[in-house]
Amino acid sequence: MAMQNDVKAAALSTTGTLYGGRARIRGIFVIPGASAGSLVIKDGGSSGTTLFTIATVAGGQPFNVIIPDQGVLASTSVYAAISNVTGSVFYA
């Protein structure tokens, strides 16, 4: 059986570091804003490696992004650059 980890959550409301250490992103809850937007998750700060990008439509419905298996690894820190999006990132 695989080892289980405690999952934590960080609110997405402004661009910045969500967690300052190694973490595996397990899922995201996204609430689109009134205009089209995006959520960019990076490893290592604003100039770090982009792990993935989620684009949203104007006035869209909230949605979940479930990341399978062990999640996406951010080896140094989890950074989110957001535009017209709020929500939560779940990581372990």
Describe what this molecule looks like in 3D.
Helix content is 0%, strand content 59%. By secondary structure, the chain is mostly beta strands. It has one domain (8-91). Strands 1, 3, 6, 7 and 9 form a 5-stranded antiparallel β-sheet that branches. It has a 4-stranded antiparallel β-sheet with strand order 2-8-4-5, with no helix packed on it. The chain is globular, with a radius of gyration of 13 Å. The two termini are 17 Å apart. The model has no long low-confidence stretch (mean pLDDT 94).
Task: Give the SSE layout.
Layout (H helix, E strand, L loop, with lengths): L7 E5 L3 E4 L3 E10 L4 E7 L5 E8 L6 E4 L5 E3 L3 E6 L1 E7 L1
Antiparallel strand pairs: 1-9, 2-8, 3-6, 3-7, 3-9, 4-5, 4-8
Compact description:
The chain is mainly β. It is built from no helices and nine strands.
List keywords for this structure.
92 residues; mainly beta; 5-stranded antiparallel sheet; 4-stranded antiparallel sheet
Helices, by number, come to 0
> What Rg do the Cα atoms give?
13 Å
Helix content: under 10%
Mean pLDDT: 94
- Derived structural class: mainly beta
Domain tally: 1
Poorly predicted runs = none
Q: What proportion of the residues form beta strands (DSSP E)?
A: over 45%
